[in-house]
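explain this:
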Amino acid sequence: MSNKEEKRLPRKKIYLSGVVRFKNGLSMFLSGEHSHEEWRNMAGRAGEAVQQIEKILRENNAKPGDLPTPSKMAYYFIKEFHEGWQEKAGAGIEGGGVGVGKERKRAPDPDSRLQSIARETADKLNLNEGIIAEFYPFSWVKLTGRLRGDTYYIRVSHLLKDAPEEVIEAAVSTLIMKRLGRPSIHYKAIFNNYIKTNEMMRKVEEHRKDNARKELRGEKGRYYDLRDVFNRMNRDYFHGEIRDITLTWGRRSQRVLGHYDHAKRTIVVSTILDSARVPGYLVEYILYHEMLHHRLRSYYRDGRRVVHSREFKESERRFPKYEKAKQKIKELFGGIGSSTES
């Protein structure tokens, strides 16, 4: 079997039984009041669950990313709870264990502040259902709410854990007001203004940089070498000033022909363009477009993210074969090909 054939093989999925059920039980536990002993017991059970999951992964030479999404998210949730307990309980560790016989406050779990705010906010806004709130490892600053039975389950991006209390309250209030059918511009504005701060945007980019997984297939394709094309574009249009950019062929997609990831400084080009029927000027145009994304960053205006600004579009049209390239995209891909930036 060739290397290319091996790369096409899907990664092995590891299926675990009980991990999602344990996570759901843990979520219910987090919504109640418990003694210190009960918290310690639950933390112990969570630690054992994490050890068992990681043992299975090691035995199968796998990573958490090889788990089905529900199991993967459950694993991260359980692990985060366990590590949060260890961090908070660390001050009381003596002789390798938690101090015994001492009166201590309940060690906060990772979601305790969020759950407390959620309960108080639900009471204030007269939510009829019960509420369970948790931080969730979304890839972006995202909020979700779902009614199950007589309980409203909300998820808030884990990137907001250190946010001011008024921001957490605004996030929770936004979801509750949506549930009540009375969307609030006030709460949404507080939330949106915070997540669009430079500090928060940097935090999101760092998270993406640490966690984003790209399907990297290298620079050299069967018909086109991306580095050669990049070097020509850089010399002819950017004065050779764009440096330290990773180039790679990615998945075969005609919907997204190119993609630039700021966090990883990576340009990914769809392998559908690595073909004899694709003219060189079209590959050049895609590289030129993604290089513009590196040079001209997106920004927010009036609460909306601007990716292709006026300056971007004017610069894009300076590509000598711009109209010809756009027409060729329509001919080859029905006009649905696009380029994205993150």
